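User: Quick sanity check before I run a bigger batch. Here is a single chain. Can you write out its predicted 3D structure?
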Amino acid sequence: PLIEGENVLGRRRSPQQHEYRLTLSGDELISGDHALIVCGDDEWVALRDTSKNGTWITPPGGIEERVRGERTIFPDTLLRMGMTRARLERIEE
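Assistant: Done. Predicted structure follows.
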């Protein structure tokens, strides 16, 4: 699950200071700090690529594209980092 605010995705296991980290292990193509997902309090989500190898998204009904800088993403967006694939899903409380 993601938290409101910044969520760091990457291969590094240990969080720095007060960061919230999702460790993606077993994929050597993922950077230590590969991407940042920022969740706002009004249901918006932004993805920022911070890697050397790139981050790709496939929006719902769209085609795969490389993220350059920061992009707003929506539920059902597919994320690809290295060989790892994930889907952004909304979880009802």
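The chain has a mean pLDDT of 93.

User: Great, the batch can go ahead then.
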